[in-house]
């Protein structure tokens, strides 16, 4: 000790002991850290998940580190005092070693060594106390900075030592915090580890590095994000929110009070962090002024006093450099963590509100909807596509927009007090530097600019609502156009609808241009505010005669403070607007929560028990052979039960004098005087349209409001299920839609699917029942959706099943099959089936019949009982059965029409085959098909998923081979084959002819005859059967009944019930430079002018600051005269004015460029869409086009121009900061260049991850909104089936995915912001260090420092703007891609042949046709001549090419070879539009457009009223239209009664109206929604309206076209038979007769 200190010098000895202590700790802690990291074990799973008091310890540690750094800076002012300097320098290093040691202990969960740290902090406490004691002996010790440093050290060491002792005690006592005593099973895969990581990793977001680095290698997907921690899950958040909402308050204002309670305590902690962060932000400008003052004054010698005073410390430039750097680092940490905490609380509040809205939507009464027009007597019957309806649209806005507004309010709520406080502090500091002139300048800017910004913000908000309305109207109309594209293309209405959309777009563009002007002015006012405040301030300085204050210190400190003032002034108006939006959104949510609820809100409390205990006998009685036996072998008993079989039975429910209503004004009541519902019966409800059938079913399941009467549940509570119209499906897989999260039972599932006739339909799907359904159940047809709903009802455990008109969408054989094989056996098993139907031919299957009339139960009885009204309906049922028998319908087992539609839908949606081409090479024709069908997918008792490879599109014509496939026969057999069970080799009915004759070989023979490439697919354990059943059953029948996923190659592979959709390919932005070039061309010269003006404006701003720097430097050296000062102030004002003008012109050019681009891109996209060929529209999902015209166009309209403007301004500003520092101090380039590279690296990492996280967040948010809307649509089914718990679990899972993505996205933003803030702090440190050590003038250092202080503010914003721009360019790329799709060749340059007659003669001469270029050949060598005026019926199996034949006549297909002549002219040599005017086509789909009836029939207004009325009378709509008050001007919408058969009649009237002057009328399965007699009448009417027109009809029912002149029979794209229909039917061996009697064929 005496070697370094004089005897008796207690201060020196104390510092020496402190230096020894810190040095020893540095050595030991470094060694321990290295040993633990290299040799320590990973954390044990049994260890507690957290240590106590770690946040307090961490904050204290940060404070201690800052204090010791300041102590080192103070000691550097006394370099001669070696002991003091060494002790002060060793302290920060020791702190780093202790921090690293603690982190390593946390990582390995080694609690015992924390005792060492506790001892170290105890010794540090003693050392600090000794130093304080020594300093207290000196005079004026309170002015010494070291006293405060040691005092803070003493306090911090005590706190940290206490925390470490507590952790050691927990280890010794084996104490585990109760909150974390149980470890979640999902914790191992958690990625969001903010709450579980070490404090240092938490505040620096270091825990996110592993995910971000992974995202750099491969694009992130949802599975990569892992599960959420339990405390962040929406279920936990919602439970807390609901408890606060329901227990504390009950008044209307409780929602805001609930918000206040829910966000505790993190929201308030974030406010404290923000307060300190904002205070740290003003230190840097003040420190810059001190540094400049230090550089300008002469340096004095260090005094003899060994202690550094506070004044000396804060007047020293080097010490202030340390303080400024530390303040920037602390500001970054505080602001980023404050923002993160606010984001977390905001997202948790958003998820809670979404859960509350979702729960309310499941409880919402049916009469709560504001739908004006309802179908029948029930508002349950809402169209599935009624997204614009009030309830669905309101729910989507509540779940998405309103909850987002409230979340955003939480994010920015602290700005409401922080901004005024920060402005006040900055104004005070400006006053101390520049006097009253600074207050006048700031006040002028606030008074002039802020009200203008508020006004502009209000205008933007109001205009946004107008834009939304216009966009909704345009997108709605565009959706109709896309749905009716067949009609538009075939009727040549492209130009008409193009003009309609452009008219709507023109109105929208006016509002968008107004929005661009307002945003440009808002940005311009922000630029003006900073310029205005400086000009006014310096001008007032001159007039007040205080020019001597314009020194370099005051000027540049003032400029730095002005820069700090710019952001709050910009944010304040936006903050107020967001708070107002949150208030409005909260009121909307509160009003929604106050809506009346349904009384039917019972929840399935035994759901978990049912998952463990599965009742196999609930669906079917094992003795019921009709249901258990295979559908191919059983017979249908076509008789109704006799009276003798009806014994006394139990009753499920009894009604006496009961009445129900929908709870809305002026609605009819449902009256039930006396009705007993027996248990275990099939009860059919019949009645005319509007008689109350739907209302009766709704009342049965508790959906209607009970008004009076008596209801008796004989057996107490019973479970129920409701399936209404339209069919309600979710965007899940088909299997999940059937299960609805019920327990999996393979046997029961297989029987239900077989009973509802879904097996042949699932065979057509590439992924079988794992196929994920799209919007409204696509790609399934209406009948297939209905059967899925029936299968769901049968799979459930409900005792009462209410089915509302499920048979209307099915053809007669399939409806009969469903009733006989599904509903009747279910009733025999003890379940009550209540079926509302208009299919009277099936009435004899019922046990009881309920007749509805005028909203009341008119009659109840058994079929065949001739009493009252029941006798009339029984007679009608007999007539219906006789008509069905005469129609020639084949046996049940499926519907070819629906499967044809399914195949078409698959083709349009680009579904892909699951057969890899590598697996079928060298396999010989049909034998290979059998071999592939027999390949077992089970190996070693585990299930394997086939690799997902790119597959070619599944075409509509499955029977047609590809053009380039040499083994097309094999593929045809593979597609048509159905696998047989490997154990018994049973053949399936839908197999090929060879499979019906030859029995598949045994497994040994299969191996012997299998080619080498196929043999690799066959496992050696393929003969091992894995049995899946219920309750452990292992008999053979169980395995036979096990459901198998049927892929497109016919292979049945046993699958588990958990289905996962394939992961979507990541969206990669390609050729970004080409996209920018295309966008710049759309912007025109305005884009170039904007770039030039923006660069000029930034250059002029730099020139103005340089001039101000010169003014301050000259005035500092020698005070300027008044004239000189005025001249320089005028020159500065001139530079500023020029810069403002350039900036204003740049904003105007940006707005003009954006307006030009949005107009041109939309017009090009619209034209390209309307002119694209039909095959392109069939292959492209409609949702993709809707997304282009809504989201993507919205990005181009609003987001992209704003993002480009912001990024350009920030890039120019940051670039100017770098250039100014490099020019003024070239040595800074050595540090700025690595900083720039580090910025680029951080931005690159962020961009690669942010785009993927944004996509995941957007997709998951869409899933949340979609499920809410779908649940609202099927709320009646949800309540009847008590599905609330199951759907809530699914909803919360989706919310968790969205919440997880949002949290990680926010954390990545904070990670980037913190990294770039540190880069900015490094830049400031470098710039000021170079200025200090180089001895530059104060003006130079001030200018460099002022621009360097800009970087921490704007660098992070620049990188995030670049990420937003990258994401928005993806939308632009999709638009440009769709603009460049191939266009239809209208052949406008071809002349119309002179003297071209309209006789209607059609000739096919050796014609082979493809649906699209280079596609498979659909029609092959067609030779047929249709004479003028002939009526031809086209028949054939599904996929035989019937519709393609009609489309070929209109030029909508690709003619591969041969010629098609219309009245002697080759259709490929005449213009397309005149051709389609001569050939009128009535497509299959019922297509109507919103508007009037006249606009739908005659949009071009070329026909007279008399002609229109004549067509309406012919199709049977005359009476209905005349009953409308508006007549032909009556409105057509989705809720105005034009759906179903009436819509088909409107389409027929449209075709008849345009067929009068046409040469031919082509009808593709016309009026399929009508029954057979109505269809015959309609076809006769069409023939009468166009007596001399050639008519070709694709026959849906043979009975409807018996009067036609001739028929054409197509098979596999070839004409196999032609002749009179009656003559062909009389021949038993004709193709037509054999098709009619073949299985699975319905015409």
Summarize the structure.
This protein is of the alpha/beta class.
Description:
- This protein is of the alpha/beta class and 1643 residues long.
- A hairpin with an 8-residue loop joins strand 1 and strand 2 (670-678).
- The chain is elongated.
Describe the SSE topology.
Elements: H1 10-39, H2 54-75, H3 82-108, H4 114-136, H5 145-172, H6 199-204, H7 209-217, H8 234-247, H9 254-262, H10 266-281, H11 283-296, H12 310-315, H13 317-363, H14 390-412, H15 415-434, H16 436-483, H17 485-490, H18 494-543, H19 552-593, H20 607-612, H21 625-628, E1 651-661, E2 670-678, E3 682-687, H22 693-700, E4 705-713, E5 720-723, H23 734-739, H24 746-755, H25 759-763, H26 782-795, E6 800-804, H27 812-828, E7 832-836, E8 848-853, E9 856-861, H28 868-886, H29 896-908, H30 925-934, E10 938-939, E11 942-943, H31 968-976, H32 993-997, H33 1003-1009, H34 1012-1015, H35 1036-1041, E12 1044-1046, E13 1052-1054, H36 1072-1083, H37 1085-1117, H38 1122-1171, H39 1174-1179, H40 1182-1224, H41 1229-1273, H42 1275-1280, H43 1284-1334, H44 1338-1348, H45 1350-1379, E14 1402-1410, E15 1417-1426, E16 1431-1436, H46 1442-1449, E17 1454-1462, E18 1465-1466, H47 1472-1478, E19 1479-1482, E20 1491-1492, H48 1493-1497, H49 1505-1515, H50 1518-1522, E21 1531-1532, H51 1541-1555, E22 1560-1564, H52 1572-1585, E23 1590-1594, E24 1606-1611, E25 1614-1619, H53 1621-1626, H54 1631-1637
Parallel strand pairs: 3-7, 3-8, 5-6, 6-7, 16-23, 16-24, 19-22, 22-23
Antiparallel strand pairs: 1-2, 1-4, 8-9, 10-11, 12-13, 14-15, 14-17, 17-18, 20-21, 24-25
Helix pairs in contact: 1-3, 1-4, 2-3, 2-5, 2-13, 4-5, 7-41, 8-9, 8-13, 10-13, 11-13, 11-19, 11-44, 13-14, 13-43, 14-19, 14-41, 15-16, 15-19, 16-18, 16-19, 16-40, 18-19, 18-38, 19-37, 19-44, 24-26, 30-31, 36-38, 36-45, 37-38, 37-40, 37-44, 38-40, 38-45, 40-44, 40-45, 41-43, 41-45, 43-44, ...
């Amino acid at each position: 000790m005496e070697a370094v200190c004089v005897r008796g010098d207690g201060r020196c000895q104390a510092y020496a002991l402190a230096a020894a202590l810190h040095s020893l700790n540095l050595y030991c802690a470094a060694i321990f850290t290295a040993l633990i990291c290299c040799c320590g074990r990973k954390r044990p799973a049994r260890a507690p998940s957290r240590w106590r008091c770690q946040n307090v310890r961490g904050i204290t540690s940060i404070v201690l580190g800052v204090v010791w750094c300041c102590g080192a800076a103070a000691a550097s002012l006394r370099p001669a005092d070696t002991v003091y300097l060494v002790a002060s320098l060793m302290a920060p290093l020791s702190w780093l070693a202790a921090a690293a040691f603690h982190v390593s202990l946390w990582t390995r969960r080694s609690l015992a060594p924390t005792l060492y740290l506790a001892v170290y902090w105890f010794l540090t406490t003693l050392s600090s106390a000794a130093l304080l004691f020594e300093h207290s002996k000196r005079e004026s010790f309170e002015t010494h900075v070291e006293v405060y440093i040691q005092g803070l050290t003493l306090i911090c060491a005590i706190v940290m030592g206490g925390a470490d002792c507590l952790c050691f005690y927990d280890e010794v006592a084996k104490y585990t915090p109760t909150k974390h005593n149980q470890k979640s099973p999902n914790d191992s895969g958690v990625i969001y580890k903010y709450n579980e990581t070490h404090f240092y990793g938490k505040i620096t977001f270091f825990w996110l590095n592993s995910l971000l680095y992974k995202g750099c290698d491969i694009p992130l997907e949802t599975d990569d994000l892992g599960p959420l921690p339990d405390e962040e899950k929406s279920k936990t958040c919602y439970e807390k929110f609901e408890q606060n909402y329901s227990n504390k308050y009950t008044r209307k204002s409780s929602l805001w009070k609930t918000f206040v309670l829910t966000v505790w305590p993190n929201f308030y902690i974030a406010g404290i962090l923000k307060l300190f962060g904002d205070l740290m932000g003003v230190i840097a400008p003040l420190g810059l002024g001190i540094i400049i003052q230090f550089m300008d004054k002469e340096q004095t010698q260090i005094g003899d006093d060994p202690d550094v005073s506070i004044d000396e410390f804060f007047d020293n430039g080097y010490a202030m450099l340390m303080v400024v750097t530390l303040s920037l680092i602390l500001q970054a940490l505080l602001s980023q963590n404050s923002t993160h905490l606010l984001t977390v609380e905001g997202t948790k509040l958003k998820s809670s509100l979404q859960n509350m809205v979702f729960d309310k939507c499941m409880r919402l009464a049916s009469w709560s909807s504001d739908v004006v027009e309802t179908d029948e007597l029930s508002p349950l019957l809402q169209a599935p596509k009624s997204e614009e309806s009030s309830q669905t649209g309101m729910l989507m806005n509540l779940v998405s927009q309103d909850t987002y507004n409230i979340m955003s309010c939480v994010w920015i709520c602290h700005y409401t007090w922080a901004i005024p406080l920060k402005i006040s502090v900055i104004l005070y500091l400006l006053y101390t530097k520049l006097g009253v002139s600074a207050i006048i300048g700031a006040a002028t800017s606030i008074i002039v600019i802020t009200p203008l910004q508020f006004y502009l913000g209000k205008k933007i908000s109001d205009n946004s609502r107008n834009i939304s309305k216009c966009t909704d109207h345009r997108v709605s109309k565009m959706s109709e156009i896309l749905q009716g594209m067949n009609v538009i293309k075939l009727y040549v209405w492209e130009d008409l609808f193009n003009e309609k959309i452009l008219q709507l777009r023109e109105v929208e563009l006016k509002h968008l241009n107004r929005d661009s002007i307002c945003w440009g002015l808002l940005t311009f006012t922000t630029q003006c505010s900073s310029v205005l405040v400086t000009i006014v301030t310096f001008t007032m300085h001159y007039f007040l005669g205080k020019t001597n204050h314009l020194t370099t210190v005051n000027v540049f400190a003032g400029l730095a403070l002005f820069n700090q003032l710019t952001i709050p002034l910009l944010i304040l108006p936006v903050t107020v607007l967001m708070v107002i939006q949150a208030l409005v959104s909260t009121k909307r949510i509160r009003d929604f929560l106050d809506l009346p609820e349904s009384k039917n809100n019972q929840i399935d409390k035994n759901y978990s028990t049912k998952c463990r205990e599965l009742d196999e006998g609930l669906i079917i009685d094992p003795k019921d052979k009709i249901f258990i036996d295979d559908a191919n072998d059983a017979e249908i008993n076509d008789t109704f039960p006799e009276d003798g079989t009806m014994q006394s039975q139990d009753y499920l429910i009894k009604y006496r004098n009961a009445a129900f209503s929908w709870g809305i004004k002026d609605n009819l009541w449902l009256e039930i005087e006396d009705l007993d519902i027996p248990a275990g019966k099939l009860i059919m409800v019949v009645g005319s349209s509007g008689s109350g059938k739907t209302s009766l079913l709704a009342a049965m399941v508790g959906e209607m409001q009970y008004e009076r009467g008596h209801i008796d549940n004989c057996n107490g509570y019973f479970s129920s299920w409701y399936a209404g119209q339209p069919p309600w499906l979710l965007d899940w897989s088909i299997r999940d839609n059937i299960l609805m999260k019920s327990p999996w039972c393979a046997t029961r599932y297989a029987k239900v699917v077989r009973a509802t006739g879904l097996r042949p339909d699932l065979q057509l799907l590439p992924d079988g029942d794992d196929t994920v359904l799209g919007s409204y159940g696509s790609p399934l047809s209406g009948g297939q959706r209905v059967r899925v709903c029936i299968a769901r009802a049968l799979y459930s455990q409900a005792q009462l099943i209410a089915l509302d008109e499920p048979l209307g969408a099915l053809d007669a054989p399939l409806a009969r099959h469903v009733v006989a094989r599904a509903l009747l056996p279910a009733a025999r098993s003890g379940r009550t089936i209540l079926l509302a139907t208009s299919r009277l031919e099936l009435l004899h299957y019922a046990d009881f019949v309920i007749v509805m009339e005028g909203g009341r139960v008119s009659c109840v009885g058994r079929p065949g009982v001739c009493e009252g009204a029941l006798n009339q309906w029984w007679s009608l049922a007999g007539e219906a059965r006789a008509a069905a028998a005469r129609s020639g319908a084949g046996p049940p087992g499926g519907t070819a029409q629906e499967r044809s539609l399914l195949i078409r839908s698959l083709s349009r949606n680009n579904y892909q085959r699951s057969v890899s081409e590598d697996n079928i090479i060298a396999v010989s024709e049909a034998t290979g098909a059998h071999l592939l069908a027999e390949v077992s997918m089970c190996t070693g008792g585990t299930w394997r998923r086939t690799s997902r490879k790119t597959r070619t599109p599944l075409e509509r014509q499955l029977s047609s081979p590809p053009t380039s496939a040499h083994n097309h026969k094999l593929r045809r057999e593979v597609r048509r084959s159905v696998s047989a069970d490997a154990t018994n080799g049973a053949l399936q009915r839908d197999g090929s002819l060879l499979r019906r004759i030859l029995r598949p070989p045994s497994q040994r023979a299969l191996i012997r005859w299998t080619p080498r490439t196929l043999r690799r697919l066959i496992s050696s354990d393929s003969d091992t059967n894995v049995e899946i059943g219920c309750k452990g059953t292992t008999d053979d029948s169980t395995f036979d009944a096990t459901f198998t996923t049927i892929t497109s190659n016919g292979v049945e592979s046993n699958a588990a019930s958990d289905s996962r959709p394939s992961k979507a390919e990541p969206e990669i932005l390609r050729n970004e430079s080409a996209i920018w070039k295309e966008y710049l061309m759309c912007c025109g010269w305005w884009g170039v002018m904007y770039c030039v003006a923006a660069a000029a404006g930034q250059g002029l701003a730099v020139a103005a600051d340089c001039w101000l720097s010169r003014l301050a430097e000259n005035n500092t050296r020698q005070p300027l005269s008044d004239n000189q000062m005025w001249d320089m102030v005028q020159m500065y004002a001139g530079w500023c004015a020029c810069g403002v003008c350039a900036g204003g012109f740049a904003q105007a050019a940006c707005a003009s460029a954006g307006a030009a681009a949005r107009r041109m891109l939309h017009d090009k996209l619209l034209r390209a869409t309307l002119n694209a060929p039909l095959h392109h529209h069939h292959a492209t999902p409609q949702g993709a086009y809707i997304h282009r015209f809504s989201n993507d166009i919205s990005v181009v309209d609003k987001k992209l121009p704003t993002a480009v403007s912001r990024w350009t301004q920030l890039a120019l500003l940051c670039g100017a900061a770098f250039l100014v520092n490099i020019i003024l101090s070239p040595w800074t380039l050595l540090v700025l260049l690595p900083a720039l590279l580090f910025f680029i690296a951080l931005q690159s990492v962020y961009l690669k991850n942010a785009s993927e996280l944004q996509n995941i967040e957007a997709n998951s948010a869409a899933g949340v909104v979609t499920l809410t809307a779908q649940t609202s649509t099927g709320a009646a089914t949800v309540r009847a089936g008590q599905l609330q718990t199951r759907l809530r679990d699914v909803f919360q899972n989706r919310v968790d995915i969205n919440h997880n993505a949002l949290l990680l996205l926010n954390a990545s933003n904070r990670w980037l912001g913190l990294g770039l803030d540190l880069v900015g702090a490094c830049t400031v440190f470098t710039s000021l260090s170079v200025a200090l050590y180089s001895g530059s003038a104060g003006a130079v250092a001030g200018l460099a420092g002022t621009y360097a202080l800009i970087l921490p503010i704007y660098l992070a914003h620049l990188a995030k703007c670049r990420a937003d721009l990258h994401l928005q360019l993806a939308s632009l790329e999709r638009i440009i891609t769709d603009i460049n799709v191939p266009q239809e060749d209208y052949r406008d340059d071809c002349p119309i042949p002179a003297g071209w007659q309209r006789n209607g003669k059609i000739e096919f001469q050796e014609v082979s046709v493809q649906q699209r270029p280079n596609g498979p050949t659909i029609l092959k060598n067609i030779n047929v001549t249709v004479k003028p005026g002939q009526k031809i019926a086209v028949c054939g199996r599904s996929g035989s090419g019937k519709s393609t034949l009609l489309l070929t006549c209109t030029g909508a297909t690709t003619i591969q070879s041969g010629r098609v002549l219309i009245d002697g002219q080759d259709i490929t040599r005449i213009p397309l539009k005149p051709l389609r005017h001569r050939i009128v086509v009535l497509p299959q789909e019922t297509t109507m457009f919103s508007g009037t009836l006249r606009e739908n029939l005659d949009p071009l207004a070329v026909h007279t009223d008399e002609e229109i009325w004549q067509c309406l009378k012919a199709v049977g709509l005359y009476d209905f239209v005349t009953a409308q008050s508006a007549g032909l001007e009556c409105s057509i919408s989705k809720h105005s009664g034009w759906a179903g058969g009436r819509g088909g009649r409107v389409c027929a009237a449209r075709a008849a109206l345009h067929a009068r002057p046409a040469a031919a009328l082509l009808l593709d399965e016309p009026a399929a929604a009508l029954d057979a007699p109505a269809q015959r009448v309609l076809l006769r009417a069409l023939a009468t309206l166009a007596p001399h027109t050639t008519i070709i009809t694709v026959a849906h029912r043979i009975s409807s076209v018996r009067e036609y002149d001739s028929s054409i029979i197509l098979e596999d794209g070839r004409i196999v038979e032609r002749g009179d229909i009656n003559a062909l039917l009389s021949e038993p061996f004709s193709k037509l007769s054999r098709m009619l009697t073949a299985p699975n064929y319905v015409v």
